[in-house]
Design goal:
This protein is an alpha+beta fold. The chain is built from 23 helices and 21 strands. It has 4 domains: 194 residues, no CATH class; 212 residues, no CATH class; 156 residues, no CATH class; 187 residues, no CATH class.
Amino acid sequence: METFLQDVRYALRSFRTAPAATVVTALTIAIGIGATTTILSVANALLLRAPAGVVDTGSLVTLHSVSENGSSFHSFSGMDYRDLAGAQGGLADLSAYSIAPVSVLSGGEPELKLAMLVSANYFRTLGVQPVLGRFFLAEEDVGVGGPRVTVLGHAEWQARFNSDSAIVGKKITLNGNPFTVVGVAPRGFRGHVAALDASLWVPVTLDPVLTNRPRILESRQYSWLEMVGRLAPGSTRERAATALSAVSARIGRSEGLTYDRTVDVRSYAPVPASVVLPAMGFLGLLLLLAVMILLIASANVANVLLARAAARAREIAVRLAIGASRMRLVRQLTTESVLLFGLGGTGGTLLAVWATRALATFRPNIGMPIVLDFSVDLTVLLAALSITLLTGIAFGLVPALQSTRPDLVRTLKDEPSLTRRGKFRLRGAFVAAQVAGTTLLLVTAGLFVRSLGRVGAIDVGFDPKPVRTLSLDLQMRTADAGEVRRFAAQLEERVTALPGVVAAGTTDFLPLNMGNQQTVVGIAGREDRENVGWFQTDMASVSPGYFAAMGMPLQRGRAFGAGDRDGAPAVAILNETLAQRIWPGEDALGKVFNFGGRDGPPTTVVGVARNAKYRSVGEDPVAMVFLPFAQQASGKIAIVARMAPGAPDPAGGFREAVRALDPALPIMQIAPLETVIGIALLPNRIALGLAVLFGATGLLLAAVGLYGVLSFMVSRRRREIGIRMALGAAAPNVRRLVLGDGLKLVAIGLSIGLVGAALVTRLLRSFLFGVSPLDPFTYASIALLFGAVGVAACLVPMQRALRTEPLEVLRHD
């Protein structure tokens, strides 16, 4: 310990002798540690850390229905939940939940909040305890006729009700219905799903009251519930899956299913199980970028440590000559490195705290309340400490070992040593590694830039630029389809009359909004199998003005008209993909299919719309069927309005139109259609921003590292250069000497980086639109960029070499 403290004091004294270099080096480390810690904190919050209030996540599981084709992550019906909850099957508790937007009215304007409809044992399953009042009782989870009770979230209780300690027993209005507050959830608890900002909870059996779906509780066909459970002591996921699958298969057979329906039991994760793998892939990409910048920064610091050691070569030689052991010196130099990385790690952690707080303020306009908590906790701090120690030891040990092998005689005489060429090669290797890592970052950034640059050139099948959207959930106010149709028609009429609105339409599905709606269409007289007698397709219900408002042209036939109303013959418009899939080589106009399957109502095709993008910008052509909103009304609607050039923002007019029809109905979202589409590209833009930031930082560090190595080379070869010039070497020869050494390092690092990028960027294929991971333009551009940066980094050392005075060098020798 005494020796260690001595090394620490010595290191601190050495830092004080070169404060500027110490600060710059620590900042370099802070960039790498800060980037890595920030991404680790995001991954921890989304994939590992239990939400506030949830206990013992190791025994929590989520349940998912498995379809006939083997795909998982499907939801359950209310009757399914009752059957599975009664069976238990190795579970100590099994709870159900659903999510619904609700209008909260307790005086003043209505507010849109996110409610979780949960079974009475939901809180018990998670291990959550109330801070005020109680949670739901079993006798309150009995159905529509049961007590209308609710539990408030802690933040909602504080913000809306001013932390009223007497809130229990008071009434609030949810979707026009009075509910009694029975309890308040603990601070920070917003449900067990990360990012969702649940403000209140309601018994799941009261769903018909909130969403106006009267028969949903007794329907086996309507799947709408997700499940979370807790394993019984000694039980396993496999045992629970086997037992529950047996129950599900038996019930399914009794309902007429021709296959054994199974249950998938998965370990709990803070995000929905269906997005765990995509989230891991995306966060893994971001973490790879952050680790690359950390390695680049660490290599740069290792070069600085080598330079410091070179400046102390005589000191090290003297200490070795008078009896100091090599391991003693290695320990001292490594201690300096660890302390230096410790300073940088502290700065990096503070940088990560700032970055995660900045991320927490991000609120994408998706029409649903969310909260992001990426705060740095103890787990992330320990990870940051471990990374700091490991990189400090790894990138400090190599320079320490290299620097404690001097040629004692030559070093003490201050003569050039052959071993110094080895140090130059090591420093060159660090620079080549920096160039390789930076190349990977820049190629990634270049591919994202090229890809997102082509998004605007991708034909999405409609013109989103002049379109503004207004989204509402009419299920909050009525279950009557006729009332929904009347409200939507009146609202569309008011929006059409607003200044600057060229055309307006109604739909229950906005394209490219990170979701989709699917159905099945059947063809009578064909064999009963997929893509022969029935076809899966996306669907949307739209009003007659929708196609004009979206700028989505019809290829053949007509748009919907006023005559396509409820009670009239069922009609539909297909897109080109679905029309050719059902009737290849034929004209679909006038053909008839059965909507919803082979036994569904006969529906006549009256138009064929041009193909468009519905789920994602980079998708292959997707089948789509459009139905008249007047014949297939849905409670969740969006008004799309095409604005004239230079027209005023219609947001105020949208709000006034809604308030005129229903003052208690909250607005879910008002946004340009381009913004709605942009949300789907958010992961790509995040990756682009980080890749550009990290790539630019890596490029700067690589240029600085190359400059440092060449400066070191020129200073160490000063005698050689002087002799060459004394013997007649011209300036171009000296330039080639310095430039050749520099560009050789760039070429080696660039070659390694391009090969690595060609291998790694294949993983980016799903993020790229219209660009190959091996895009030659991107690779060539990065090579040229690095060539230019390499030449620029060589200029100052090259000029220094040219200023060498041969007589002065020879006189000194």
